[in-house]
Amino acid sequence: MGFKKMSRSLDFADFALSSSLEANRSVKLMEKISASINWSRVEAVLMQHYTVGTNQEGAKAYPPILLFKCLLLQKWFRPS
Q1: What are the residues whose beta carbons fall under 8 Å from the beta carbon of 21, sequence distance 6 or more?
Q2: Residue 80 and residue 69: Cα distance in Å, rounded?
Q3: What is the pLDDT of residues 5-59, one digit of tens each?
Q4: Burial code of 35-49, b = ≥16 C-beta within 10 A, e = fewer?
């Protein structure tokens, strides 16, 4: 099965928002957080416990580090 390949190409939404990203405080905060965390160590721990994606059958799975980062964003930026 393996993992989905995540492309880093810009789409229309990225292009439309590119001018506002320079002054966006949330993006700056996320960049700071991303720089301060050793994601390869986190990914190594996740890969020990994430068995999805190791089988060749079925659809490709999302990488566990992507799912973990989505969970963190949900916890940090969800309105209470």
Answers
A1: 27
A2: 19
A3: 777 676 777 777 777 777 778 888 888 999 999 999 999 999 898 877 667 777 7
A4: eeeeeeeebeeeeee
Name the DSSP class of 9.
-
Could you tell me the pTM of the whole model?
0.68
Output the CA–CA distances (angstroms, integers) from residue 67 to 19, 40, 43, 60, 72, in the order listed. Answer: 27, 14, 11, 14, 9
CA neighbor of 64 nearest in space, from 48, 80, 77: 48
Q: Where are the domains of the chain?
A: 12-77
The DSSP-derived string for 11-74 is: -HHHHHHHHHHTT-HHHHHHHHHHHHS-HHHHHHHHHHH--TT-SSSSSPBPPHHHHHHHHHHH
Q: Which two tokens stand for residue 50?
A: 């994430």
